[in-house]
Write a structure and sequence with these properties.
Elements lengths: L2 E5 L13 H6 L3 E4 L11 H6 L2 H14 L5 E6 L2 H11 L4 E7 L10 H4 L2 H10 L6 E2 L12 E2 H5 L13 E7 L9 H8 L4 E6 L5 H4 L1 H8 L3 H6 L6
Parallel strand pairs: 1-2, 1-3, 3-4, 4-7, 7-8
Antiparallel strand pairs: 5-6
Length: about 230
């Protein structure tokens, strides 16, 4: 049985995987869904202001240590692609599979800010205008969303090359929001890299809520169904 560690994207907590977790557990697997520092309901302004990408990578590593986890499938959505990349590079071989779920896959020296598109740079800048350190959630969405630490978007990742030694690396491209996605060029880059498996899901960015069965199927290696159709056959 596999051990999954699920890391949410910007503004979100462990609840963002609430529809996927029971599907994985029902299949007999162990699942840990995290909430990163600064995104927890009881985090104060100081915690948000101090948190950055390193903080979030350390959140993952501390969780691995605390629960004595090894041979882990580490899943990151959106911004959390930055986090799982940094964590896997520092995890000392404890990660056996990485799944970047419509998520950034940075190279050494890149940040979320440098890797995204102009639309999201505007979202980050506008969202941080009120405080200078916390980016408010954009638009109308789940009321559980919280302001995201700006420093986490801005800090560059430093990689030793250990990330490239993770045996299995996968990227999931959600094709249902191509007017705004920052991941189209990344998909092209990774499709040309034989070290990566690239999957397509015909959903919007929030695939975990739009199509949890398809996300779970992909994580459970039922890739043909996950790549080509949603559970209702569309």
């Amino acid at each position: 049985m596999a051990t999954f560690v699920l890391v949410p994207g910007a503004w979100k907590g462990s609840w963002s995987f609430e529809a996927v977790v029971p599907l994985l557990e029902r299949a007999g697997h162990t699942v840990h869904a995290l909430t990163l520092t600064g995104l927890r309901p009881d985090d104060d302004n100081a915690a948000v202001a101090a948190a950055n990408l390193d903080t979030h990578a350390e959140d993952v590593l501390r969780h691995l240590d605390r629960h004595h986890l090894d041979n882990v499938t580490l899943v990151g959505h959106s911004y959390a692609g930055m986090v799982i990349t940094a964590a896997a590079d520092r995890a000392g071989g404890r990660i056996s599979r990485l799944v970047h779920l419509d998520a950034y896959v940075p190279r050494d020296g890149e940040s979320c800010w440098s890797s995204t598109n102009e639309h999201f740079r505007e979202v980050f800048a506008t969202g941080a205008a009120a405080t200078g350190y916390a980016v408010r959630p954009p638009g109308v969405g789940d009321p559980r969303r919280r302001p995201h630490p700006l420093a986490a978007f801005l800090q560059t990742v430093r990689l030793t090359g250990a990330f490239d030694q993770v045996p299995r690396r996968e990227f999931v491209y959600c094709s249902g929001w191509e007017d705004r996605t920052p991941f189209a060029d990344l998909r092209t880059r990774l499709q040309a890299d034989p070290e990566w498996q690239v999957h397509d899901l015909p959903t919007g960015h929030d695939a975990m809520h739009e199509a949890p069965e398809a996300v779970a199927a992909l994580l459970l290696d039922r890739r043909v169904r996950a790549d080509h159709e949603l559970p209702d056959g569309t």
